[in-house]
Amino acid sequence: MSRVGKKPVTVPSGVTASVEGQTVKVKGPKGQLQFVVHDDVDVKLENGEVTVKPRYETNRARALYGTARAQVANLVEGVTKGFEKKLEITGVGYRATLQGKNLQLALGYSHDVVYTIPEGIAITVPKPTEINIVGIDSQVVGQVAAEIRSYRPPEPYKGKGVRYANEFIFRKEGKKK
């Protein structure tokens, strides 16, 4: 059994949660999110807490209910605090600029990479080598950060590229003479 799944998700004041069938809807000060839970998982809202339990005693249901509980907890955290990912750009001439709804990245290619910012995501560039991604849906924030990082992932020899702010790059030694 999942230790994460056993804990109920408390709904703080200022946040309203509702369960309609397999859909969990959460509305808070930062916005509104919803998540459709798998059919093998049972979700209930009682006394300001969302509880998640496996509907059947199958391996699949036991595997899914901890994930479903974590998703519901992310919904509640997203509408109250929001999520943020920070990226750092390392390399000579590598930089990022905002142009309206687009993020323009100079990453050493013959052309600039233009990334269109999706709805519900706010990107700021405090320095040309830093990118902050903020949003209420943790899955979308993580996906946007991963897509931007994928344009030039950090390489192990010089460490050039786009990396997460807390990411450690294992450096390799160059070839020897």
Tell me the layout of helices and strands:
Elements: H1 3-6, E1 9-10, E2 16-20, E3 23-28, E4 31-36, E5 41-46, E6 49-54, H2 59-80, E7 83-90, E8 95-99, E9 102-106, E10 113-116, E11 121-124, E12 130-135, H3 138-150, E13 161-164
Antiparallel strand pairs: 1-6, 2-3, 3-4, 5-6, 7-12, 7-13, 8-9, 9-10, 11-12
Classified by CATH, the class of the largest domain is Alpha Beta
Helix and strand content put the structural class at alpha+beta
Whole-number total of structural domains: 2
The SSE string, one letter per element, is HEEEEEEHEEEEEEHE
3D architecture notes:
The protein has 177 residues and is of the alpha+beta class. It has two domains: 3-80, Outer Surface Protein A, domain 3 (Alpha-Beta Complex); 83-164, Alpha-Beta Complex (Outer Surface Protein A, domain 3). Helix content is 22%, strand content 38%. The protein is built from three helices and 13 strands. Strands 11-12-7-13 form a four-stranded antiparallel sheet, with helices on one face. It has a three-stranded antiparallel sheet with strand order 1-6-5. Part of the 50S ribosomal subunit. Pfam families: Ribosomal_L6. One of its GO terms (cellular component) is cytosolic large ribosomal subunit.
Quick take:
This protein is α+β, with helices and mostly antiparallel strands and 177 residues long. It contains three helices and 13 strands.
